[in-house]
Amino acid sequence: MSKVNVVLGTFFGDEGKGKIIDYLGEKADLAIRCTGGNNAGHTIEVNGVKYAFHLIPSSILNKNTIALIGNGVVIDPKVLIEEIESLKEKGINTDNLRISDKAHVIFPYHIAMDKLLEEMRGDKKIGTTARGIGPSYCDKFERCGIRMEDLYAKDFAEKVRDNVRRKNEIFKLHGKEELDAEKMIKDYQKYARYLKKYVVDSISLIHEYLDDDKNVICEGAQATLLDIDFGSYPFVTSSNPTIGGIITGSGLNPKNIGDVYGVLKAYSSRVGEGVFMTEQNNAIGDTIRELGHEYGTTTKRPRRCGWLDLVALKYAVRVNGLTHLAINHVDTIGKLDKIKVCTGYEHDGIVDDKFSLNEEYLKKCKPVYEEYLGNFGDISEIKNFDDLPENAKKYLNRIEEYVGIPIKFIGVGAKRENMIIK
Ligand code: GDP
Ligand code: IMO
Ligand code: MG
What is the dihedral of CA 229, 234, 235, 236, to 10 degrees? Predict the structure, then answer.
């Protein structure tokens, strides 16, 4: 039976997971998205064309790969249809798309609730993507969620009416516009007809592929420090983007898991609120943002930028059982004269690598940096690690040495071919 290779984010998202998945996807028979929804934005550049995926596994670009949206994903069908149509316009065949019958569906009341909750949080807002992700996972756990298979059930309209009635009571209380259940039912019946041919029993599908010794990969969304349990709570997303979410979001079991690739950038970035130990809220952060084009794929917000934090990376290795690293934007960091990397936290008069997302603890901590030389020059066409400039090799070797797992992929540019396989 084959093992499943997994790609996960190690920091606050946008590490370039899409690019690594695109590479692994070339050989994959089946690629699965397991968690999150259209809060994700995975950008890939192939033959001069940019693709921004929000829900569909990026491996759909490979005509031989089945691209499955797993049960752990929350799906906004309107957005999904737009994504399918936009791929078709670019000449991409979407017949290989599959959608789990157990995936939960995002409705307009989830989006309205996401916005209302942010408004009510005031200066404690999370900075969500306002895509209805949190409220939709809340309904899943409250057991009033509507799944893909429910769109085709006899009691679908009744379920929507029930939910809308209850949500409208809250909207009314806060002076917000009430939603029209009947219009919603009609719209969603239309979406359901469009999507029907893609909906499958995903758990059987996955295990048939594994039994047949096929190549299966999982595309993580979001990242370790945005995890509802292991991230900087409450400034996190409402799912488990770590390894556990891959399992519960697909129907795989722990024994199925093979290599786990942790994706990071040669620096760090974050969108939305919350702690960011190595943030450079200054000219350095601004320079990194401009050099790396650090503006959100999904919400276009400017990303907060800072140095790479090896203390946090080690935590991601531990929590996810990472076996390899994939580091992107080495070209970007190499444009600076000097590069800093955080190798410890100073607290209570000592320096160590203790990582905890306890706010009180982090408030006491001060990142301790090592400095490396930049000026890598144009490295975008380099294909072998040995051909990288010494400064780049020193920086990358230090990362490997610190976390104790090997770097497998080195991103030296945004395009598919700008990658060194080590
Ligand atoms: P994801 O959410 O983890 O898939 O990452 P995003 O797509 O949101 O953000 C990563 C951004 O960095 C995208 O615009 C990519 O095209 C770009 N990118 C990825 N790897 C590299 C790299 O090695 N160098 C450069 N310059 N850009 C990269
Ligand atoms: P990818 O897969 C970066 C962040 C939001 C916000 C917090 C909660 O592209 O790496 P949500 O809408 O999920 O309730 O917002 O999580 N966030 C991401 N940040 N990349 C992502 O996905 C993200 N998905 C959610 O900005 O801070
Ligand atoms: Mg992204």
Answer: 30
